Protein: AAA+ family ATPase
Organism: Fuscovulum ytuae
Amino acid sequence: MIRAALLSAALLSPMPLAAQEASPAEPEDGPSLMERGLSLFFEGFRQEMEPALEGMGQALGEMKPAMDELMGMIDSMTYYQMPEMLENGDIIIRRKPDAPPVAPPAPEAPGIDL
């Protein structure tokens, strides 16, 4: 009973005037309501996207050897035209006509069968 009386007295007591908005002449302390809202929004977005981004990072790490091999075959991306999709779904990337000739790949050393 005493707790209820104290709680109701605290709720019904006059609130301090600190909750009023600052006048335009007075600078605000801390971030505005909009800044706090955006900060909370982006924090929630980051927390939601974190597992997906970690999975994507792992997948890219697994693809790195293949991407390195592919980039070793391509001398410069500026020598190629934009990718083009054919009617059958194939994607081709043509080399520009004014690009320098491609050096043939070095022959691989023959393997040794044991």
